[in-house]
Amino acid sequence: MKKYILSLIALAVICTSCNDFEDINNDPFSVDINKAEPEYFLNNSILGAQQDPNIAERTFVLYWKTAARQHLTTGIAGGSYDDSWTVEYWKGISEWLNNANATIEIANEKKAIGQGKAHYDNLIQVARIWRAYLMSEFSDNFGPQPIQAFKGVNPGFNSEKEVYYFILDELKDAVAKLDVNQPVPSNPNAYDMVYGFKWGQWVKYANSMRMRVAMRISEVDPAKAKTEFEAAANSNMFISTSDDNFKVKEDTGWNPLSGVMSREWNSQILSATLNNMYIGLGGINSTDQLPAAQHTAVKNVDYIGIRYDEQFSTMTNDPSAGYWLDGLPNKIDPRAYKTFYIPGDFNNPIYSLYPTYTNQASTNSGDLTFANGSKVTINTVNTWNTTTIGSWGVKGQRNGLRGVIGCMPALGKQYREGKNFRIFFASWETYFLMAEAALKGWAVPMSDDAAYNKGIQDSFAYNGVSQFYTQYITSTDYNRDGTSVAYTHITEPGTFHTMNYKDPSTGNMVSVDIKYPVNTIYKNGSVKNDKLTKIITQKYIANMPWLPLESWSDQRRLGLPFFENPAVETPLVNLPNLNSGNYMTNSIQNFPQRLRYPSTFRNTDQDGYTKAVQLLGGQDAVLTPLWWAKH
């Protein structure tokens, strides 16, 4: 495998890489056509899209995971961006698209000169399917992109609507032309790193991708979305089991297959967004999930923690803001403890000691400083907390726990060490898409409740918590956002729930009414527990951590799931709409909407850049919504 990868990398050097979209038209026949095989270029495209650590840390972790609130980092979630990161990603995805195009062109050229092979026609369709994914990734990040570049002429930028229509047409036509009975190629050097030339699996991926892209445009073009979705769903050829999942084996070290979340210095601490979703959801007791030794740390169901208002910001609509839980939650979604480790739980097989060049992960304590200068040292062993992103001002300076590895739950090592499979599309996503389609009244082969429960079931199986599935799907317990699991339980939770907190100065317990957050960008905040909120909440949790771009896209499209506003103890210059007077109100202006085009594009193709921004319909800015996003 490694020898094969090295040969692909060598081919990549032979092929001209591209810094700008104009370079997509570089002549792929600069290599010896007699020696080139189209599948080499396809695999090189797929290999590159795994993102080497240079690109992965910046794009997958610091852009996508941050925007999707999969971890505790402000960054782009606070409206900022880094042009140098975007330059690297742009260069990468342009090269991946170039190699996908070369696959098609070389296969056609070899056929034209009498060197065609039996599997080339299928390989062309597979390359079109993969290219369609890359195009969707590009437009989900930036917006307008070229279509004509893929037809052998100089690229001119196209609107997002044209791009997504093109993607849908490509997926439909490629599936129609794939011969699933075509034998696997006999060439010993032929290789397909995803499905091993199981053509039927590529058909399933294409149809599931068609459902994803159709749903992406459903808020702005419902008629087209419905037509495309129904056709794909009723094909009965889609990703329906874990064996169908589009996934690629990771590797250790520094190469394109290195784990996308493997950089040790990225703490990837539990986010407030996830924590509010997890706590209480599904009604599963922590004592049923954890070893007996940890049961004494589990707190009462009506206890929210110690109130530290001098060290924790409350200038946010995070319903948990201001409290430190000196133990473990009474009830929590069972995937939480499988995804994030509990501080100090060294016997846990997922406990990560990253960064290994310090002892920070095993230093499970930190100081809180009071306004009068006194300090208290907090033991964080067997505690479960996080904090809101944003600007904390003086309170942040007093808080020695915020964002500190060893003090808060962080991502398990199974996602950090490059020993897993990176998932691009999983069966649970198919079912949550199907559930949303059925809820809309579209003609699909499953009911919304059956598809919803099947998505949860597949996610539970992946996380190894299937024993809780039956109890979980019937639960009417609300999480901190006011959402429950049971699909038919759509009773709203009310304005608040009564909890108890501990006063740190007296040690006394005090009753407090904790308000459920009002998500003002979804149905004007009128509901918290309708069926669509349930579907997207479960889809979000299931997609953690492999599909942050998809989670970000759902939040941009629908305003779901609930994202709390960043704290504004001091102003956030990149989120000018958010201030000390409106931090309880959500607005799409408080959340990133896209990546800016890189400076290399602006500087080398001013005409193309001007056209792209014109098609965008707004400034080339992080806060400019994409065509399909909720307005």
What secondary-structure arrangement, pairings included, does this model have?
Blueprint: H1 2-14, H2 38-48, H3 53-67, H4 83-112, H5 120-141, E1 145-146, E2 157-158, H6 160-177, H7 199-216, H8 222-233, E3 246-249, H9 272-278, E4 303-307, E5 323-324, H10 336-339, E6 340-341, E7 365-369, E8 375-379, E9 390-391, H11 393-397, E10 410-411, E11 421-425, H12 427-439, H13 448-463, H14 469-473, E12 496-502, E13 509-515, H15 531-542, H16 548-558, E14 567-568, H17 599-604, H18 606-616
Parallel strand pairs: 4-12, 9-14
Antiparallel strand pairs: 1-2, 3-11, 4-5, 6-10, 7-8, 12-13
Helix pairs in contact: 1-2, 2-4, 2-5, 3-4, 4-5, 5-6, 5-7, 6-7, 7-8, 7-12, 12-13, 12-15, 13-15
CATH architectural grouping of the domain at 2-238 = Alpha Horseshoe
Number of helices: 18
CATH-derived topology of the domain at 2-238 = Serine Threonine Protein Phosphatase 5, Tetratricopeptide repeat
Class of secondary structure makeup: alpha+beta
Which strand order do you get reading across the main beta sheet?
A: 5-4-12-13
Please count the beta strands (DSSP E, at least 2 residues each): 14
Q: What's the average pLDDT?
A: 94
Could you estimate the helical fraction of the residues in percent?
25-40%
Fraction in beta strands: 5-15%
First and last CA, distance: 47 Å
Keywords: Lipoprotein
Protein name: SusD/RagB family nutrient-binding outer membrane lipoprotein
Organism: Chryseobacterium pennae
